[in-house]
Structures are given as structure tokens and as C-alpha cells.
Amino acid sequence: MVSCKKCGNKVPASALKLDLDLKMVVCQDCIKNKGIHKEIETEIFHKVDDLAKAEETKQKTAHKCTSCGYNFKIDLETKKPKNCPYCNARVMAF
Ligand SMILES: [Zn+2]
Ligand SMILES: [Zn+2]
Q1: In this predicted structure, what is the pLDDT of residue 56?
Q2: Ligand nearest to the CA of 27
Q3: Which of 56, 54, 74 is nearest to 64 (CA)?
Q4: What is the pLDDT of residue 55?
């Protein structure tokens, strides 16, 4: 038995693997844990990426209130706001 250079676990020498990132031999548990961390990182990265893309593709159109003349933006996807944020007059046309 030899001990893992990273976590100190006593494992058979055949179970140790050279980790190219850490530049040391570690046990299979350490390699497995590293893989999980990498997966989580990329998952979060992708989620942020998707959110940024969704924000970009959101279509908004400028609208001028027919009642008070206040300029604001309407989201074409959700058709919001339905009322003028200034005078609360109903938005009639897009
Ligand atoms: Zn280890
Ligand atoms: Zn208005």
C-alpha cells in the first residue's frame, strides 16, 4: 500500500494514477472528484451562457404612450408592460 500524495489515502500502488494537472500521483478517488468538479464548472458556465443569450434575443420595441407621450420599451415576447408605467394608460398598439 502507498499513500495518495493528495488526500493521503492508503491505496494499492496499482490504483495510483499520474495526474497531469497536479503533476503528482493521486488515487482514483481524487481523480473522480476532480472530474465532478470540472463537470459542475462547465454546467454553471453553460447556464450563464444560456441566460446571456436569452437576454440578447429578447425582442423589445420602443413605444410612446398615446395618452401622455412617455417613452418606454415593450417586450414583444411577453407583451409587457401592458400599461404605461407613467400614466397607466392601456397600451393599444405595438
Ligand atoms: Zn487521493
Ligand atoms: Zn402614459
Answers
A1: 60
A2: 1
A3: 74
A4: 63
Torsion sign, CA atoms 44, 47, 51, 52: positive
As a whole number, mean pLDDT of residues 67-72 equals 95
Report the separation in Å between the CA atom of 13 and the middle of ligand 1, taken as the mean of its atom positions. Answer: 12
Separation between Cα atoms, residue 10 and residue 14, nearest integer Å: 12
Smallest Cα–Cα separation from 92: which of 63, 58, 72, 59? 63
With contact defined as beta carbons under 8 Å apart, do 94 and 61 qualify?
A: yes
Confidence (pLDDT) at 4: 92
Report residues near ion ligand 1: CB below 5 Å: 4, 6-7, 9, 26-27, 30
